[in-house]
Predict the structure of UDP-3-O-(3-hydroxymyristoyl)glucosamine N-acyltransferase.
Amino acid sequence: MKILQSLSEIKDLISERNPKILNLPNQFSKNTDIDPDYSYTIQKEFEVEGKATFENKLSKVKVSPTEAGKSSFSWNGKKYDLESEYCIKGNHNIQLGEVKVIEHPLAWMLAYGLYADFSLVESSFPTFDYCDRVYLDGSSNNLKKLEKRKKISVSSPFSLVWEKGYCIIEPSENGEDLILDHQVDYPGTTVGRSRILTEFTPEKFSFFGDARTTAFRAKKDAENFYQIGLAGGLKDYPFTLENVLLLDEDKIYNPREKFIDPDSGYNFEFMCHEIIDIVSWLRFVEEKYNGRFVGKMTTFLFDHHKQIDIAGFVSNPEELTKIGVEIQN
């Protein structure tokens, strides 16, 4: 990856972004009791159950309280603190040690300022029919407010640029919000070059946190997947028409009414799940520096392996110092 810090270089980098920007409809919000200035944990442990993503076996995940100032993920007698140095670039997911597909619970933790311990029966998290809703339900009326947390941000803008894709991190303008500006690039019209700009808040996440994992396929493959889904799903992978949003270049096969904007008719579920995926790495930063990250993140073609790269980079104060950037609070 290449590091850019010049404002002119960063401006050139984003010059070809889609000028048409999507904004989440006002109704895409749900009231919560979360105060973003505080951290939280679980009062009482709870379990969620589903088919493990890679093992395709019925599995349970136990979510437990922690007050140690560090979250952890455990499987097969091994426990990993949520530190980027333990990340592994596995099969299109964020893997922590031997624990796989942690990006979805990380997004929930980021939205709620949550510290928790996760214990898995299988090595990979399940792919749930409603993504993070199982955690939202399990934590409903089950949160304990911890200490007030400081706001953290970067001292100056910088961008990490890969062969394809980039992530730009900028300081917060008002010292309060996390702003996301994300663009994708797919063939056809269902998604295409969609770009979304939104604040990342507990209220918005509580609405769209159940957006499903997406499966974009060419039309012929998508039709085959759809027929497989109608027949009950794949035998060796927990794919169904309930836990995956299936689409091709010009068709969504299994839309959910909740995500359709009544004014424009646009289906936001794909982009909402993109938000879940792209923000998850910031939870590493928050746990490293013990605070709430505020600022702006601008991304393009920002996959899970790139997120592991930037999580490691930003969580390393020495690397940041080399380019003259600090984490400020």
Summary: The two ends are 27 Å apart (CA to CA). The longest strand covers residues 58-64. The chain has a mean pLDDT of 94.
